[in-house]
UniProtKB/TrEMBL annotation:
EC number of this enzyme: 6.3.2.10
The Mur ligase N-terminal catalytic domain, residue ranges: 30-72
List of residues binding ATP: G106, S107, V108, G109, K110, T111, T112
General function of this protein: Involved in cell wall formation. Catalyzes the final step in the synthesis of UDP-N-acetylmuramoyl-pentapeptide, the precursor of murein.
Species of origin: Acrocarpospora macrocephala
Catalytic activity annotation: D-alanyl-D-alanine + UDP-N-acetyl-alpha-D-muramoyl-L-alanyl-gamma-D-glutamyl-meso-2,6-diaminopimelate + ATP = UDP-N-acetyl-alpha-D-muramoyl-L-alanyl-gamma-D-glutamyl-meso-2,6-diaminopimeloyl-D-alanyl-D-alanine + ADP + phosphate + H(+)
Name the record gives this protein: UDP-N-acetylmuramoyl-tripeptide--D-alanyl-D-alanine ligase
This protein's pathway: Cell wall biogenesis; peptidoglycan biosynthesis
Family: Belongs to the MurCDEF family. MurF subfamily.
HAMAP family, per database record: MurF (MF_02019)
Alphabetic keyword roster: ATP-binding, Cell cycle, Cell division, Cell shape, Cell wall biogenesis/degradation, Cytoplasm, Ligase, Nucleotide-binding, Peptidoglycan synthesis
Domain Mur ligase C-terminal span(s) in chain numbering: 315-441
Keyword Thylakoid attached: no
PANTHER family: UDP-N-ACETYLMURAMOYL-TRIPEPTIDE--D-ALANYL-D-ALANINE LIGASE
Length: 456
């Protein structure tokens, strides 16, 4: 699109633009380091960084212009609200290229499921999917702006931090298929008193579906089942229950704790072997299979796609084998009780008889139940017979440590003040052959500890 056309779409004024007919031919970016030649740089203002300060660098890196809230001395389209403008531009693009839009949400497993689904679909047609976890009101339109007229499937991870978020996102990118994975305790502090409030927010996705669309719902989650009455779309159930139309039979953990099962769909069945560890990955794979089934793929095609799929997003059960035999499992991108339990069980299955070390920090946004939920995790660490627990930080992690210690299951418990302390202690404690699991909410920063341990 030409700059003057973009200006019309988003209501911008042109500043320092020599050629209003200059074409934007590449995706947009909010990180000046990720600008592509021919792209558009969106200068957003964050808690620590003001994108306007990087406008000149973005132009030098090949951007045609900057979408900005004020003149920046280089070619710019100036608007009152950069985030809103990016959304308007994305909606305009979708109206002209018309891919099949697939929205997915849930408390746990969104990014892994999105990555699996993308790898199944892209074997059959041009597919664009959310990068990493760019699933909010800025990341979603940036994903849309990577699509073009050749794109058949647009897979959009949709995050919801509070009620109304999914209504906004589905307004930008109306989905033809909507996938709801589960309802847990992530973001419960912002959404209300409990899972019912989370379900109300997540259900906004299926409410946005057209009558000729598909709602892919998890039959194993009672809160997701309750969303059936909130959609006009055709419902396709998935899960491990016998009532699910897309389901798993003969679930097991194969070599190195990788999940395997028999995929059953309305059109047939096929064996599935995942490259991902943990039994909880079965539900993620079934979710991807349900979408693919709704889009017309057969069981064998789906199974082949799942077989070849690999982990794409960092910090989610990311496994690094060190030369000294130590295995580092970096699951520190984020954390809530559900993902913590799944990760701990997956790592214990992976370890077998090897010594296990858990380096765990706080889970955010758990409201008044936070201390109790951390204590539950401490007991689980002990019940799973982890050998060592390193609890990182004050407050709730101390409750986790105390619960693990008082369980009398033989786990050795250490507490440290911060990430640096966790790295020092883990480095000192680890022995050849150990399996170390690192996880906490992203704001804790334990990902840096995991990466350092992996590179040691």
């Amino acid at each position: 699109m030409a700059l003057n056309k973009i200006a019309q779409v988003v209501g911008a004024r042109l500043y320092d633009v020599r050629d209003p007919q200059a074409l934007v031919t590449a995706p947009s970016a909010v990180d000046s380091r990720e600008v592509m030649p021919g792209g558009l740089f969106a200068a957003t203002v964050g808690a620590r960084v003001d994108g306007h300060d990087y406008a000149a660098g973005a132009i030098a890196g090949g951007a045609v212009a900057v979408l900005a809230a004020r003149p920046v001395g280089v070619p710019a389209l100036v608007v009152e609200d950069v985030q809103l403008a990016i959304g308007l531009l994305a909606r305009h693009l979708l109206e002209h290229i018309s891919p099949t839009v697939i929205g997915l949400t849930g408390s746990v497993g969104k990014t892994t499921t999105k990555d699996l689904l993308a790898q199944v679909l892209e074997r059959h047609a041009a597919t664009v999917a959310t990068d990493r976890s760019f699933n909010n009101e800025l990341g979603l339109p940036l994903t849309v702006l990577r699509a073009d007229a050749t794109t058949r499937y647009l897979v959009l991870e949709m995050g919801a931090g509070r009620k109304g978020d999914l209504t906004y996102l589905t307004g930008l990118a109306p989905p033809q298929a909507g996938l709801v994975l589960n309802v847990g305790t992530a973001h419960v502090e912002r959404m209300g008193a409990g899972p019912a409030d989370v379900a109300e927010a997540k259900g906004e996705l299926v409410e946005a579906l057209p009558a000729d669309g598909f709602a892919l719902l998890n039959a194993d989650d009672p809160y997701v089942r309750g969303m059936a009455g909130r959609t006009r779309a055709q419902i396709l159930w998935y899960g491990r229950s016998a009532e699910a139309q897309v389901r798993a039979e003969d679930v097991r953990l194969a070599d190195r704790a990788r999940a395997a099962f028999e995929l059953v769909t309305p059109t047939g069945r096929a064996p599935v072997q995942l490259d991902l560890i943990g039994e909880h990955q079965v539900s993620n794979a079934l979710a991807a299979a349900a979408v693919a089934t709704a889009l017309g793929l057969g069981a064998a095609e789906i199974a082949d796609g799942l077989l070849s799929a690999r982990r794409r997003s960092a910090g989610r059960l990311e496994i690094v084998e060190r030369p000294d035999g130590i295995t580092v499992v970096n699951d520190a991108y984020n954390a809530n009780p559900e993902s913590m339990r799944a990760g701990l069980r997956a790592v214990q299955a992976l370890a077998g008889t090897r010594r296990t070390v858990a380096v765990l920090g706080a889970m955010g946004q758990q409201a008044d139940a936070s201390r109790a939920r951390h204590a539950e995790l401490g007991r689980l660490v002990a019940d799973l017979r982890f050998d060592v627990l390193i609890a990182v930080g004050a407050g709730d992690p101390l409750a986790m440590a105390e619960a693990a210690k008082s369980s009398n299951q033989g786990v050795t418990v250490h507490t440290v003040e911060d990430v640096a302390g966790a790295l020092r202690l883990a480095t000192a404690l680890l022995e050849p052959g150990d399996v170390v699991f690192v996880k906490a909410s992203s704001e804790i920063g334990l990902g840096a500890c995991a990466r350092a341990l992996a590179g040691a």
